[in-house]
Each structure stands twice: as structure tokens, then as C-alpha cells.
Amino acid sequence: MAQNSVYLPEQFLAQMREALPSHLSFDDFIAACQRPLRRSIRVNTLKISVADFLTLVSPYRWQLTPVPWCEEGYWIEREDDDALPLGSTAEHLSGLFYIQEASSMLPVAALFADDNAPERVMDVAAAPGSKTTQIAARMGNRGAILANEFSASRVKVLHANISRCGIHNVALTHFDGRVFGAALPEAFDAILLDAPCSGEGVVRKDPDALKNWSTESNLDIAATQRELIDSAFHALRPGGTLVYSTCTLNRDENEDVCLWLKAQYPDAVEILPLNDLFDTAKEAVTPEGFLHVFPQIYDCEGFFVARLRKTRAIDPLPAPTFRVGKFPFTPLKGREAAQAETAAGKVGLNWDDSLRLWTRDKEIWLFPSHIEPLIGKVRFSRLGIRLAEVHNKGYRWQHEAVIALAGSENTFALTHQEAEEWYRGRDVYPESTPQQDEAIVTYQGYPLGLAKKVGSRLKNSYPRELVRDGRLFTGNDRTD
Length: 480
What we know:
Layout: H1 10-19, H2 26-34, E1 39-43, H3 50-56, E2 62-67, E3 70-78, H4 90-93, E4 97-99, H5 106-111, E5 120-123, H6 130-138, E6 144-148, H7 152-164, E7 170-173, H8 180-183, E8 188-194, H9 215-235, E9 236-246, H10 255-264, E10 269-271, E11 291-293, H11 295-298, E12 303-310, E13 330-331, H12 334-347, E14 355-360, E15 363-368, E16 382-383, E17 385-391, E18 394-397, H13 399-405, E19 411-413, H14 416-423, E20 438-443, E21 446-454, E22 457-459
Parallel strand pairs: 5-6, 5-8, 6-7, 8-9, 19-20
Antiparallel strand pairs: 1-3, 1-4, 2-3, 7-16, 9-12, 10-12, 11-12, 13-14, 14-15, 15-17, 17-18, 20-21, 21-22
Helix pairs in contact: 9-10
């Protein structure tokens, strides 16, 4: 990358020169900002173990280097510059890994540090879903996550990523994050606030990230961040953990926001130092115990992470003024519930008692039971997963449910070529057909969707909005 391709305003550089700890070199900082960002991925352990993933991709020309703060995280280098895009590989399409910047894996590592095992978690600014999916994997799809996103257009992307990764313990909301302290006081065991910020840390990915940079703008953003962290702190139960993070580097949006919260509630905010989060954390730790990651330290994006504990209850905020409206679902019980469960089991879909059946019109949904206490307090954009639509001949099983709930029963393995056809939305003509009328089609042992047998063909049910064209995975990136 050419030395002048990244735009770094003079005033920003002056601020960074002052902010940089004495053991770090300013020239190294500039050089790191100018270097292209290393790609990184995180193995989705809800679907595959790290060991099995490494075995699966071992024939490929991938060089994988472990990310020190995330056991499932790897920097990835591929020999071929013209290699298939990572997002078009079979393993990505079937949700076995997530393309995630290494430093953005830090906040969730901090959230679950010291054996923290929260049952109800909120991700305040969740899209596109890298941290929500990481939280879900750490929770083993148990408990519940409220994933909020203020931008309506990004809620769809968030849902698509959650669905691809086979996650069923998430409720989606679409609010300004400042409402939660009043709407859901003391409702969460842990909260991640990956706050909207000025993005000073992302210049390696976006050379024009600082085109509109100004100290005035940073101070405006910091004012919003203070309102967000205050709201999040109210929504946290006493004893709970709040992780505050940004992908920016200035003190106004980072340390000062956390210290402001501490000044607001001096006997309720405890800073939990991150010195021991991973082996070399001390290289990025601040005197307060926060992680302030300059890009040259670990050769990744710039990032900031703070971990706070709420040591006691604080005065509640005034009750919210918005109306939630009537909840349109009712629990599905008795004979109807038993019928749905039996029918689902026959096609290979199973779940445990952490999920409950609910119904609306002709739809059947599965909601995480840990979210039920929040029903009626906020409006949900989407809750859990849609299991089926009921019609006069039975059930039409939904794609997201197949991806999340399929086990090893009633499966039918597709070849390389057939799997590619499936992702292109085409019907498949295998040499032999499955025994049952409906079967869960798999590739590499992982579910791609539910196919209906019609004569000698398998009718494709892959959702139209997910259909891919362009280069796909067949035969690419392999050494064999």
C-alpha cells in the first residue's frame, strides 16, 4: 500500500502523538496505519469444533495463525491473490466460520473472562452480527441474547448472519440504544456496548475513514456515548458485567466515557482490569486497566475495551413513554404442541426445553425461554426462530429452523457439484434419492436446507434472498 494512501489529518496525528504511551513508537503507529489489514476469521463452535475445522480446511492453501485473545480466532493468509472470496467458500456459506476482524473479538473475550457465565445478555449496537454470533457461541446457544440495532437497514443483515450461524437464542430489537435503561431496568446479567464512534482505528480497512474527522465531531460522539453507557448501566443487574468498546483511538470517546460513568456512580461502578485477559495484554493495558489497542501492537485494527462491574443497584430512570403494543403471539401447548414436535422430529429437527413453542396466525415459532420476562416491555423486531408454517397438509418447515436445529437424522449428503447447484437456487438431480419425501441436504456433514423429493429430483427450498451467483466453492482453493 502506498505511503500516502491513508488520510491522516494533522490534528489527529498531533492528538495521537500525545496519546501514545511512551513504550510505543509514533513512527510505528504511522507505518501500521498505512499497512493493509490482515484478514481474520472466527470458527463457529456452535457448528464445528476448532480441531474439526482445522482438519476440514487442511487441504486448502490457507495459512492460519491463532489470535491470542480468542481460541476460535485465526488470521488467514491465502497464497492465491485471485482466490475465491472467503464469503463464497462452502465453509462460510454453511456457517462454519465468520469473517471477523481480530480486534473486534476482544470485547466478547472480555465479557466472558474469569468464567463469567451470563444467562441473559444484551448487545446494544449489534449489526452486522460478529459479536452477537460470538456471544451466542460462547453461550452454547443457551440463555438469551437481546441484539439491538438502531439502523433499520442493518437489522436484516444482522438476522441473516444469525440465521447462517445456526443461532436460536436471539431476540432482535430496533431502537435507539438510549431507551433500554428505562425500558428494561436491571434485566441483563451482561451487556456489550460496542459504541458508535469516530472509527479512527479502521483506517487500515477504509483509507478515507478520517476524511470528515474533527475534534468537535469526536466530542459530539462522546456525548452520545455517555448517554448510551448510562442507559446500559441502568439495564444491567447488580453484580453484572458491562463491556464498553470502540474501534477508535482518542481518549474522549474511550477512557473518558468510562471514567465519566464511574464519576456518576462512584460506589456502583467497579473497573475490572484486563491485564490478564491474554498473554500479551499488558502491552495494551492502560493505568486504569482498560485495553487501548494501537494498531502496531498486535498488527490489527485500533480498538478500545473496558470491563466494568455494577456493584449495587442505582436509582431507576423515569418509566419509558413509548407504547409496546399487544404481543401478537400466544404459547402453543397441549396436543398442537405435541403434534408439531413429533412432526419436526420426523424430518430431523429437535430442540430442548431452553426453547418454547409460540404461535401467530398459521406460524409456529421457537422463543428462548430466558427472553420471556421481557415480553410486553419492549417491541421485538424478531424473536427466536420461525419453525414452520401450518397448512392443510401439515407443516412447511422454515430454512432458519433447519439450519439451527438439524441433527444427524434424515440427512442426505450432496456432492461438491450438487451443493453448488443448491446455493445457486437450482433443483438437484442426485444419482439416488433419499427414502423420505423430505430430507435435510448436507455438504461436508453440515445442513444446507430441506429438500422435497419430486420423482428423481430434489426440489430446492433455499431462500431466494440467499441465492448466490458468481464463483462458488467447487474445486477452488484446494491442493488436491
